[in-house]
Design a protein that fits this description.
This protein is mainly α. It contains 20 helices and no strands. The relative contact order is 0.07.
Length: about 350
């Protein structure tokens, strides 16, 4: 069963805010697309930015917005195309180009264009002042290319620039997604030396302890976060309970998270589906996955669709599992675990025939 991070590269890359210029309908279309992007209405944002680009309005920014929207939607090849158009448009200033390069490298990484992604990272390093986020991005690309020393060097630079909880967790998750969690664990150990100041810090510390499989300390930190109003801490408490085999306790936490006002409901439904898988109630898992898919963004969609493959495999419906895996790999070509799963299912289909 696939374990995934709560955060991801896109959060680290969001940098420059877009501002509108002159008046008229073109300005209003552009401004609305900005609002849609900020609110997570990515399909609507993509349409709005596309209209702005067609009208020749703020071309670098419009193509950039379209690229970011496509990236969130998992349309990585389209994202690369839009972001390339943004870079090629007249009027893109230096700071905007730096931002666009970061997004394009992310899209290229997600679409498996690793040489292109590294080329953009090298341009960032040679032509601009590197930020912690760009060191982290370069580390992720190097890791995907099996350039472990280069990855380690960039991750060290990223953590030196930003030694906070989020960066430590992101670096660990990058290694974890390559089955190299031990290489990232030192960042978890290092960041625990930082003192918690607020609910977000306590939540992050709980997540760190969860990854270290120190579940009692995880609960202690997460409960402090819940007491201070953190809804995300309930989600991670569900993960802790599930890891301890307490599916009833996990269900309670996931449902409380779903019922919260500021929750990302798809994450909660995915958690409930994981409880169902652990309990062997596979039809219920499919129901929860469907509920999550209806509200998911790209990252949460990826988790849900992967777990859908797992459910059909558990149900011994290998034909459906294979179809779902083929669709998944086409959508998320950078997922190595899914590629392995697809190979397994293809072998099952071959044996059956």
């Amino acid at each position: 069963m696939k374990k995934r991070r709560i955060g991801w590269l896109l959060a680290a890359c969001l940098g420059i805010s877009l501002t509108a210029g002159c008046g008229g309908q073109e300005q209003e279309t552009y401004r609305q697309a900005e609002k849609d992007l900020e609110q997570g209405n990515y399909e609507t944002a993509l349409q709005g930015f596309g209209t702005s680009a067609e009208n020749g309005y703020k071309l670098p920014e419009s193509y950039r917005g379209a690229g970011i929207s496509a990236l969130h939607l998992g349309n990585y090849e389209d994202a690369v195309s839009y972001l390339t158009s943004a870079l090629d448009s007249e009027g893109a200033g230096r700071s905007l180009k730096q931002d666009i390069l970061s997004y394009r490298a992310t899209a290229e990484l997600k679409s498996g264009l690793l040489d292109d992604a590294m080329a953009d990272c090298q341009t960032l390093a040679s032509d601009y002042s590197m930020t912690a986020d760009n060191y982290y991005l370069t580390g992720c690309v190097a890791l995907a290319m099996d350039s472990y020393d280069e990855a380690a060097s960039n991750f060290e630079q990223a953590y030196a620039e930003d030694g906070g909880y989020d960066m430590a967790i992101q670096i660990y998750e990058a290694y974890l997604n390559r089955d190299m969690g031990a290489d990232g664990s030192r960042y978890l150990e290092a960041v625990l030396q930082t003192e918690a100041k607020d609910a977000e810090d306590y939540c992050s510390r709980g997540q760190v302890y969860y990854y270290m499989q120190d579940y009692e300390n995880a609960k202690t930190e997460l409960n402090k976060a819940v007491e201070q109003g953190s809804s995300e801490a309930k989600l991670i408490l569900g993960m802790v309970s599930l890891a301890q085999g307490d599916t009833a306790g996990a269900r309670t936490m996931y449902q409380e998270y779903i019922d919260g006002e500021d929750s990302i409901r798809a994450k909660g439904y995915n958690g409930l589906a994981l409880c169902d898988i652990a309990d062997g109630t596979y039809d219920s898992a499919l129901t929860n996955i469907a509920s999550g898919v209806a509200e998911a963004d790209t990252e949460d969609m990826q988790d849900l669709l992967f777990n859908e493959i797992v459910v059909y495999e558990k149900k011994l419906d290998f034909a459906t599992a294979l179809t779902k895996a083929q669709e998944y790999v086409e959508m998320f070509p950078d997922d190595r675990d899914a590629a392995k799963e697809l190979t397994f299912l293809q072998s099952r289909a071959g044996n059956a025939s």
